[in-house]
C-alpha cells in the first residue's frame, strides 16, 4: 500500500530484511493484535446479540451483529495496531534497532511518554468505523452467497426444519466475503496507518483527500495482497471460530 513497485520487487525487498525484519513487531504486538481481534470480535457480537430485539432475524440480524463486532474490534485493537504501525514505520525510515525485540516491547510506552495518552486513541474512531463497515459488508456478502444455497436445499424439507450448511459452504463463502470486502474499505484501510504515524499532523479529511489524488491505481495499490489477507482473516474468524465454538459446546 505504500509503494507502486511491482509485486516481485516488493517481495524481494521484504525477503531482504531477513527473519528479524520480517518478524519485526510480531512479538508482542502481532500476537496481541491477532488474539485481541478474535476476543473483541466475539465480545461485540455477544453484546449485539443481547441488544438486538428478537424481531430482527436472518440476514438483517447477521449484518447487524457484524457491525457490532467490527466496532468493538476497532476500538479494542487500536493500541496494538498503533504499536505495530510504529515499528513498521521505524523500519521503513531505516532505524536498525526497530527489528529487535526490546524495541517492540518498549515502543508503546515510548509513544505514550513522548506524545501523551491521546496518541493511543489516534485513528481509533476511523478504525472502529472501518472495521464495522468491513464486517457489515462481509456478513452481507456471506449471507447473500448462502441465500441461494439455503433456497435450493429448502425444497422438500419438513415444516420447521432448517437448512444446514456444509463445512465447504461455510469455508468458501467466508473466504469470498473477506476477499471481496477489501474493495469497499480500502480507502479507509490506507488512511489508518497515516493517522497513526508519528508525523501525522494533518487532519483526517486532508489525509483522506490525498488518497484520491493518484486515482484508483494508487488508491487500490496492494489490494490483491490485502484481499488474500482479508480472505484468510475472515475465514479464521467466521469458519474456524465457529468450529472451535462447536467443539467447546
Report on the structure:
- The structure is a single chain.
- The protein has 249 residues and is mostly helical.
- It has eleven helices and no strands.
- The chain is elongated.
- The chain starts with 6 loop residues before the first helix and ends with a helix.
- The model has no long low-confidence stretch (mean pLDDT 81).
Query: Any idea what the shape is?
Result: elongated
Please, what is the average pLDDT? 81
Measured as a percent range, the helix fraction is over 70%
How many DSSP H or I helices?
11
Radius of gyration over alpha carbons? Answer: 20 Å
Oligomer: single chain
Report the sheet with the most strands, covering strand number, pairing sense and barrel closure. none
Low-confidence stretches: none
**Helix-strand pattern:** HHHHHHHHHHH
Helix vs. strand class = mainly alpha
How far apart lie the N and C ends? Answer: 41 Å
Strand content: under 5%
* Record field, number of beta strands: 0
Amino acid at each position: 500500500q505504500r509503494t507502486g513497485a511491482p509485486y516481485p520487487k516488493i517481495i524481494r525487498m521484504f525477503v531482504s530484511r531477513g527473519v528479524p525484519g520480517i518478524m519485526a513487531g510480531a512479538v508482542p504486538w502481532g500476537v496481541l493484535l491477532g488474539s485481541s481481534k478474535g476476543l473483541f470480535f466475539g465480545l461485540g457480537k455477544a453484546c449485539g446479540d443481547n441488544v438486538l430485539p428478537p424481531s430482527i432475524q436472518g440476514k438483517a440480524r447477521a449484518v447487524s451483529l457484524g457491525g457490532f463486532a467490527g466496532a468493538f474490534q476497532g476500538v479494542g485493537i487500536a493500541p496494538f495496531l498503533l504499536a505495530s504501525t510504529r515499528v513498521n514505520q521505524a523500519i521503513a525510515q531505516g532505524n536498525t534497532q526497530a527489528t529487535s525485540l526490546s524495541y517492540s516491547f518498549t515502543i508503546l510506552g515510548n509513544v505514550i511518554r513522548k506524545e501523551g495518552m491521546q496518541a493511543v486513541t489516534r485513528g481509533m474512531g476511523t478504525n472502529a468505523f472501518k472495521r464495522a463497515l468491513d464486517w457489515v459488508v462481509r456478513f452481507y456478502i456471506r449471507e447473500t452467497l448462502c441465500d441461494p444455497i439455503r433456497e435450493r436445499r429448502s425444497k422438500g424439507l419438513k415444516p420447521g426444519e432448517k437448512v444446514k450448511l456444509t463445512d465447504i459452504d461455510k469455508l468458501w463463502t467466508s473466504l469470498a466475503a473477506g476477499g471481496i470486502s477489501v474493495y469497499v474499505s480500502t480507502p479507509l484501510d490506507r488512511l489508518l496507518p497515516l493517522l497513526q504515524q508519528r508525523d501525522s499532523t494533518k487532519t483526517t479529511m486532508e489525509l483522506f483527500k490525498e488518497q484520491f489524488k493518484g486515482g484508483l491505481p494508487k488508491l487500490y495499490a496492494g489490494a490483491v495482497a490485502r484481499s488474500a489477507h482479508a480472505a484468510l482473516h475472515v475465514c479464521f474468524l467466521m469458519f474456524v471460530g465457529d468450529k472451535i465454538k462447536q467443539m467447546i459446546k
